[in-house]
Design a protein that fits this description.
The complex is a heterodimer of chains A (222) and B (317). Chain A is an all-alpha fold and 222 residues long. Chain A is built from 7 helices and no strands. Chain A starts with 5 loop residues before the first helix and ends in a 13-residue tail after the last helix. Classes of the chains: A mainly alpha (222), B mainly alpha (317).
């Protein structure tokens, strides 16, 4: 713990959260589905590193377990499921979106500023060394939500959902040094099952409509 | 004192003018080596410039005074922009003349006249190049201004000499790495776009339909072409200097002793030569983007710069 000062540690945590936010923007700007998955892996690795850093700085050991689970579940298992889905549905890139890329980037920039203004009155009340990351965590949640709205393909919507979860994890680490381990375990299990279900659902969507475009689902109405 | 200042300004102008063809040659050499060619020597651009200056220019009868005035305006504005950036000494004598905003708009002045000159000759390719350059320039400007503001905030000044001086001595600046990182990434994209490099423009292209910068200057020849080419090299040198000295000013002379200035000059040349080699490498790794995808890339640059600014406020807590 005495390896570096708390001030430097806090700045490194900030840098880790900044890199997380950066990968969010890269995902929003990316059209190729497999590259989106790779960027999500990168984001999860950054998240695990940031969480481990917090664990190291605070000496709270269960954050290490959550970080290890992040690597296993979000950087290995879920990407593998998603890549399989992409291979099956044979869609390489997303050409049509509800919001085009430059506009999407601008909206995400606005979301970051919004998150900053929302958390601004709360942050000075905190006393944890990770408290600055709260604004970034909220921004990541909002951007993940935006991804789910802006994209049409089921796979990228799943990635938006996973990005949201990454944001929540960062938020929990920032605001309270992580959730209790039993809650984390539950969340990871939910994520895994959720991704599996959406994977199967994409397969069915592909078989029924020859497309994983979720906007096609509106044709189901009577 | 006055004499010393004048000497330093002249020295800086000579360094910039002398090094810019070398940078262009170095990038070409690196690209050639990556493509398994031997390539021309790194000093080839000097010979090209010398030859162009001796050639008689041919000027279309349909052009106005803008066409002949533009190379001089472009060259002069780019060189004056270069004099505002600290090269090998952190306190440039010209720093009273303008801050970062002046730098951005001096460069924009040259671009503006080049766009007019592209239209002036009335050729289809020139007009096409001008229209594309206008798109790129209007998209890079906000990104560049914002990224530079993020840096200015951390140093508490918009004066480039002050920023570089404070960063080199590591005093009186906000040391949080995140805003610097975002601004650096944004400025790198802007530099590639503004100097007409891959993935935005390809300086080595022979196909007029894909040109941006080259299409605008198709009508130029002789000494006018030499000035335009030299100004393009200068612009590259200005951007590389800006990136090298704002983000990594270490080694720059903070005092005016001969030893410090010598070290400053050597590290300066090494730094920007390293950056030029990096650009050459990047040009071999990436393909040129389709023109309509350039907006995506420059959108990313703008957002990065914006994030740099926002982070400055968020992360101060």
């Amino acid at each position: 713990m005495s390896l570096f000062s708390i001030d430097v540690g806090s700045q490194l945590v900030d840098l880790g959260s900044a890199l997380l936010l950066l990968t969010c923007f890269a995902i929003v700007a990316q059209r190729r589905l497999s590259a989106c998955v790779d960027l999500f892996v990168l984001q999860s690795v950054f998240l695990a590193l940031t969480a481990s850093l917090v664990a190291f700085l605070t000496g709270i050991h269960h954050i290490y377990v959550a970080a290890a689970l992040t690597i296993v579940v979000k950087a290995v298992i879920i990407p593998r499921i998603l890549k399989q889905v992409i291979e099956h549905v044979n869609v390489k890139r997303e050409l049509e979106m509800n919001v085009n890329v430059p506009t999407g980037l601008l909206i995400c920039g606005a979301l970051v500023i919004l998150a900053f203004f929302i958390t601004q009155p709360i942050i000075p009340l905190g006393f944890l060394l990770t408290r600055d990351s709260l604004a970034i965590a909220l921004a990541i949640v909002l951007i993940g939500f935006f991804m789910m709205i802006a994209r049409k393909k089921a796979v990228t919507q799943v990635i938006g959902f996973l990005v949201m979860e990454n944001g929540l994890f960062l938020g929990a680490t920032a605001a309270a040094y992580g959730m209790p381990l039993i809650v984390e375990l539950g969340v990871f299990f939910d994520l895994l099952v959720g991704t599996l279900i959406i994977g199967i659902y994409s397969h069915r969507l592909q078989d029924a409509f020859d497309s994983v475009d979720t906007s096609k689902l509106t044709t189901l109405k009577e | 004192m006055m004499l010393q200042a004048i000497t330093l300004v002249v020295a800086q102008a000579i360094v910039l003018l002398a090094i810019s063809p070398f940078l262009v040659g170095l990038i070409r050499k690196v690209k050639a080596r990556f493509q398994c060619r031997r390539g021309a020597g790194v000093f080839q651009p000097y010979a090209d410039l010398a030859k162009l200056f001796r050639k008689q220019p041919v000027i279309s009868t349909t052009t106005s005074w803008i066409f002949t005035a533009t190379p001089y305006i472009l060259f002069a504005s780019t060189l004056s922009a270069g004099l505002l950036v600290p090269t090998f000494i952190s306190q440039t004598p010209m720093n009273f003349a303008g801050n970062i905003i002046a730098l951005v708009y001096l460069l924009a002045l040259g671009t503006f006249f080049l766009i007019l000159a592209g239209l002036d000759a009335g050729s289809a390719f020139g007009g096409m190049g001008s229209s594309r350059e206008a798109i790129v320039a209007s998209l890079t400007e906000p990104a560049m201004i914002l990224s530079i503001f993020a840096i200015a905030l951390t140093a508490g000044s918009t004066n480039l000499s002050t920023i570089v001086h404070k960063t080199a001595l590591m005093e009186g600046i906000v040391t949080d790495p995140s805003p610097h990182l975002m601004a650096l990434a944004a400025l790198c994209i802007v530099a590639l776009a503004e100097t007409g490099r891959v993935p935005v423009d390809n300086p080595a292209t022979h196909l007029e339909l894909t040109m941006i910068h080259e299409a605008m200057v198709l009508e130029y020849s002789g000494r006018y072409l030499a000035l335009v080419e030299w100004a393009a090299g200068l612009k590259l040198a200005v951007f590389l200097t800006l990136i090298a000295n704002v983000f990594a000013p270490w080694g720059i002379a903070t005092t005016l002793t001969p030893a410090a200035m010598g070290i400053g000059l050597v590290t300066y040349i090494l730094k920007i030569a390293g950056l030029a080699m990096l650009i050459g490498t990047l040009e071999c790794m990436f393909a040129k983007l389709r023109l309509f995808r350039v907006t995506d890339l420059l959108g990313v640059a703008f957002i990065l710069a914006l994030l740099g600014l926002v982070f400055f406020y968020i992360l101060r807590g």
